[in-house]
Amino acid sequence: MDSPALTHNVFATLSRSRAALERSGSLGDGMAVAQWNNHNDATTYRGPGHHTLSLYLAGGYQTWRRDRPGIYGAPGKLCLLPDEHESEWVIEGDLRFVHLYFKPEHFAQATVALLDREPRSRQLRDLTYADDPVLAAYCAQIVQLNWQDTASHLAANELAHGVLARLILEHSGPRAYLPKGGLSAGARRQVLDYIDSHLDSNITLGGLARLAALSEFHFARAFRDSFGMPPHAWLSARRLQRSRLLLRDSNLPLVDIATACGFANASHFSNRFRAAVGANPSQYRAVLRK
Q1: Contacts of 46 by beta carbon, 8 Å cutoff, 6+ apart
Q2: 85: helix, coil or strand?
Q3: Are 99 and 51 in contact (CB under 8 A)?
Q4: From the first residue on, what is the mean pLDDT of each consecutive set of 10 residues in the chain (290 residues)?
Q5: Among the four 101, 159, 176, 236, which has the fewest Cβ within 10 Å?
Q6: What CA–CA distance (Å, rounded) separates 142 from 146?
Q7: Cα-based angle 99, 102, 106 (whole degrees, multiple of 5)
Q8: SS3 category, 256
Q9: Is-contact 72 78, C-beta < 8 A?
Q10: Is the dihedral of CA 272, 278, 283, 284 positive or negative?
Q11: pTM score over 0.90
């Protein structure tokens, strides 16, 4: 399985450094993980465009950040590099660590679900050598799993969603300034409520635009400004999320879940679900119910 980590800038930066990749893999839903070791190196990150959570597994006692001299790492320490992050690191001695990679859309979807806030109004904090036993435990459990095995992969997916939720609830805060544009608060809530209550229907861009009293062009731009993704991507993510809940909490046949979530048929549902999660719906349900 090709790892989506390959598409992340932090992964690419480390690949060009002295760091040695031990293994990498998909965590499902576009999230990724990579395990590294490094020795006597220097690394610079410049606005990677995605979020990276790092857990030190071994060493790091002489690893430090140039703009924060005198503070050193250790096993169990966490670093959070938000998408707009910039930093330079010096690795003296040995270091072994794991990276979890999340895209801005993951942050956007979880922010709405957990906080009912417009994603662009929140931001993840830049953390260097933080202590969070819950977050560290989630990451350590992911490390212990075989990311290529179906059951373990799905367990890692659930843990990754737990990591993202913890980051948003405990390590995010209001953005210092709100970028211009976007939907009004009332339009945002009306549009999202409409999407969630009509997932089994044929939702169109024109229909959503009318709810916000905007042209299709201006609505699409405002929606992307508010949520960091186009309406069709948001709709697809919500349909997949609803299907996950139904697979977990109901005994509905797959064909009924496909219909309830707006997929053309069971085959279409299965293909989309496998592409996102890394397992077909039947496998996902079976693992959750073991």
Answers
A1: 86
A2: coil
A3: no
A4: 68 95 94 97 95 98 96 98 96 97 94 92 96 98 94 93 97 88 92 97 97 96 94 96 95 96 96 93 88
A5: 176
A6: 8
A7: 155
A8: helix
A9: no
A10: negative
A11: yes
